[in-house]
What does this fold into?
Amino acid sequence: MCAYIVNEEYYSKNGGAPAEERAELQRLQQEGVAKKLDVGMVRVWVLTPDGHPYDMLDGAKVGPTLAGLQRAVEHFKPRPGQPVVPPGPQSAPPAAPADAVTLHLIARGNDRGSWGEFPAENWIVLPREDWSKLLPTGDVNPGQWWELDRGVSAKILTYFYPQTENNDARLDRIEKYLLIARALTVKDGVVTARIDGYVMMHHVFYPGRKDAQPLGAEVVGVMTFAPGKPPSLELATTKAMHGQRWFTVAVRTVPHATTR
Amino acid sequence: MIQGTRPSRAALILGLLLGGVVATSCSIGTISDARVVRWVEETVAERQPPAEDKRFDEIAWVTDIRTAIALGKEYNRPIVLYTGDGRINTGRC
It folds into this structure.
């Protein structure tokens, strides 16, 4: 049986974990301290089947983690079998209104080991009132250009950063940015436009630190739309750097479950 | 919203505004109109996580303590519980 929780949901005043969940975490910590386990925030616990602390693993290292799991198997002797819940994608688009546009963003810098080997993802939901601002007013002709709405552009570009321990993506760290569309073709009422742009900001690697490093990214993309209909948007960085780290970003429009 | 019909103006605005890290080696305009649709499509596809990056999804996770304990009791299985900062499922952690 495997579980993961997001500490911010449990410790933050505004976190989403219900009081009963917070109480359970507190109970585990108290029992863990009483059992002289190395209790802390970022931990891999092994619990008994009825939910009491049994062991604490060094989740940062593969060898000790596997050894700890093996110890638990030898102690509890669980009966082999299928998982009790079906495995599935742990990063999925949030439910959104049927007429919303959901964007999936993948960001990756390849210069770090450990968790840095894995890409970071964001789901960006643009309700109708947002995506409609990306489209030009009136008829569109090839060659026509327009600036994408700055507020909506910022909502997308604010996630253009590599894997960092800090994930405070507040908009006010963006200094300069621009996304411009230019219609390439108009066929049967469907407009295909190229997007060019950039974002510049300062982004902190570690939470709570004040040593924000400069970040710059150039962006190219394509937006396809019929007037008044939700657009399909794809974006990719051509060059992007945070401090001394090169990284890449890709954004694409994806289907989503509807909230109504 | 700024709109116009002269494509060169968009490039000009970008050129004027770019600075710092990116502007030192600006690549704006290096992908031609003829290539851009295919380039974007291929680049976005290439940057999707391969299966080996998503092995986390092969584990049957639950995402709260009480459900884990309820299932642990029901199936008599010990529980591995990861408590982490940020969201390990999206890599924003």
